[in-house]
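User: Predict Peptidoglycan binding-like domain-containing protein's structure from this.
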Amino acid sequence: MDTDEIDIQAGARIYNNGKFRDLSSASGSTADLVATPSLGAVVSGDYSKWLDIANITWNTSGTYSKEWTASSTVATTTVFTIGDLQPAHYYIVSVDDVAQQTLQADGNGRIAYTYTGGYSVHTFNVDPDTTAPTTPTASLTSNISGGGTQTFTWTASSDASSGLLKYQLYVDGAIKNDSIATTTTQTSATGFSCGSHSWYISAVDNEGNSVSSNTQTFSVSSCGGGGTFYGPPSALPGYLTPRMQTIAPDGTVTYLDTPTPAATPTPPTVSTPSRAPSSFLRSLKYGSKGNDVSALQEFLKKDQTLYPEGLVTGFFGPATQRAIRRFQEKYDIASSSTPGYGTVGPKTRAKLNALIK
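Assistant:
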């Protein structure tokens, strides 16, 4: 005793005498649902035992989810054959929101589920398997040298629905090994560039649901020479010598091994005396400037009674003027009452030239 396709709106009542009928007016839209209850011996004309199928929701695209209710006058075992599913995909059958079994659709997009519980009114659901496997945990990895082999290990994953299909190894975000058997939790790989790398494991179930483990890292060093390096770290390319330092509260870093720059010695000031000319060729007076003024001052400072200041500036100022006046008085050239007093005129210049020869 069973039904063929059931009208979605009308539902169906199935009797133990092999008859069935719609529960309400039909819509013409049918569900590929066959219910085969075991209602006991077939008794012609006996309509006391029946199974009702109602409240049908039937998606034939998208999630392909199905739902219906079933009720009966007796406890019975019923085989439900559900169609309009995607071939080879996995579906979870639930009764009253409790998952009962995961089934794979055949090539025609059908599954068969046998219900063995008692009946009052129960709600049946068929939904695609979207549950990912349990999450594996990636273990710490050691650093390796260039050209070496890295071994990756993790804890096992499981999948209670469609079952675990494979593991995948990802390194630096790309698949390194696409199909690792579910019977192992370890794999090895080579061909890593020098530097730091990240990796994780993905567990994939038969429906294609996947979950990724935590991410671990490892480094590859000594890549240049292709061999094992046994020398001191300071011999490695790019090695930086460790330096002691202090860090102030404001973040300023002071390196303790920074030598204090040696003070640059200040060269001694060498005074280059101006040479007295072989003769004074021009008249000099207050305000005159030049090398001949410097030569005059050099000559006068030799006699501190004449020029006690002893300044050699190249400028004929008050001190130089006083020195010339003393010179003129000493050699009876001029006095305060005569013209040219305090200037280097012809008479004073002649006396100077006579003394420097």
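The chain is about 10% helix and 30% strand.
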